[in-house]
Amino acid sequence: MNWKKRRKYAVWLLLLGICFGLTLGCGAKELLVQVQKESNQVESVFQKEVQNPKQVPEVEIEHISQEKYGYAQLNEEGRQVYDEMLSAILNYQEKIMLSSMEIELMKKAYGALCADYGGLFWVEGYVFTKYTKGAELVGLEFSPTYSMTKEEQKQIQQQIDVVVEEWMSGISITDSEYNKAKYVYELLISNTTYEEGVENSQNIISVFLNQKTVCQGYACAVQYLLGQLGMESVIISGTALEEPHAWNLIRLDGEYYYMDVTWGKSGYRGQNTQQMPFVDYNYMTMTTQEMEWNHMTEVEFQLPQCTAVTNNYFRKEGTYIESFEPKIIGEILKKYWENQQFVTLRFAKEEDYKQALTYFIAEGNIALYCSEISEVSYIEDASWMEIHFCFY
Q: What is the pTM of this model?
């Protein structure tokens, strides 16, 4: 599993006789002196002492994020700052003077913006400038840092659009939200390879143009594709197994679930020791409780308690076993055996899970339902109370 790397840097700059510090944030290339860029999670800050803030070109502020999750978690002032920063980015503006002078509010709004917009592949981060008059802060300037020119961004966007149109040809905006989420989940798992150290791994270029990415790329792509289908989703940052990680919060039929495409890409060793891929649906529509078994969120906006199970994959697909009834379970296995498909049975109770292992596998009664089966390839997962049957 690859994890997004975070590092801290410290550089002191001399400007107008004042020393200025470089602090952790979202991206910097150059600021009067060359700054080594090893992560796109760096921000730069410096301050100028002036009589009045310098004038910067005005930007027509766009208000297009009302339906975005991160945006909705901000107060009115934070939403205004969010809108100002987003408008500057979309217009390739060099800089903009913010309406607020609260630095922490600016950082919070920018974090929400990045969580809401997974498609901003041309933005590496930002630099902000504090304007002071004596000890008084009189202005706060936001300057996005771009990784490419506007013309280059347009060309890459066109290439992405071609791939996305092809990939999304199998789903319609009129389909159910469950089917949309499942389609995107399976699409990204089947069309991309998880690989460390690939170029543009922190944005959607790595997914759509290179088909090789890491957790951040997956999370950005989920947000981007579900947005194309009119669905609400947001990028969540934090840790998984105590390593930096990224995944998503999605909304299905008015209820929230967590989705982690990175962890959904799984596999097992076949009879000839060949690695056989399969989609692990445990991570498609997780509750908060399930997510917190091995994930820990680190975001500055409020997250909901996800308790809904209506759109849980196993319930929707009819492989959630609430009671041990051999004939019903046998018919499920028969269907997947005849179609030579991988199937996972999740059990509601531990005793039923253990009884199924004994009855179908240890005692060999799977042969009563799966004709001509000579041996069973399966995976036990006691933590989820699941049995994976590999009928490839």
A: 0.84
Provide the token pair at 14.
Answer: 């001399």
Alpha-carbon gap, residue 270 to 376, rounded angstroms: 11
Q: Which residues contact 204 (CB under 8 A, 6 or more apart)?
A: 118, 119, 121, 160, 217, 220, 221, 224
Summarize the confidence of residues 77-94 as an average pLDDT: 96
Question: What Cα–Cα distance (Å) separates residue 309 from each residue in 70, 212, 306, 314, 345?
Answer: 23, 32, 9, 9, 16
pLDDT computed for residue 6 by the predictor: 34
- Token digits of residue 392: 């490839």
**What is the C-alpha separation between 381 and 279, in angstroms, rounded?**
15
Q: Which two tokens stand for residue 319?
A: 């492989």
Cα dihedral 249, 250, 253, 257 sign: negative
CA–CA gap between residue 224 and residue 204 (Å, rounded): 8
Mean pLDDT of all residues in 207-233: 97
DSSP 283-316: GTSB-HHHHTTTEEE--SS--------TT-HHHH
Q: Is 235 helix (H, G, I), strand (E, B) or coil?
A: strand
Q: Is 303 exposed, middle or buried (0-12, 13-18, 19+ CB in 10 A)?
A: middle
Q: Which long-range contacts (CB under 8 A, 24 or more apart) does 315-320 make?
A: 316/178, 319/343, 319/344, 319/345, 319/346, 320/346, 320/348
Pairwise CA distance, residues 245 & 2, whole Å: 8
pLDDT higher than 80, residue 29: no
Give Cα 125 distance to the centre of its chain: 18
Q: What is the pLDDT of residues 282-318, one digit of tens each?
A: 999 999 999 999 999 999 999 999 999 999 999 999 9
Backbone phi, then psi, for 219, in 5-degree steps? -65, -40
Backbone angles phi, psi at 140, to 5 degrees: -135, 120
What separation in angstroms does the CA of 58 have from each of 55, 80, 113, 282? 9, 15, 20, 48
Q: Which residue has the higher pLDDT, 64 or 8?
A: 64
Tell me the residue type at 130: K
Non-local (6+) Cβ contacts of 279 within 8 A are 185, 186, 189, 190, 264, 265, 266, 342
Q: Which residues pair with 320 in a beta bridge?
A: 346
Query: pLDDT tens digits for 168-196?
Result: 999 999 999 999 999 999 999 999 999 99
Does the pLDDT at position 50 exceed 60? no
CA 206 to CA 237: how far, in whole Å?
18
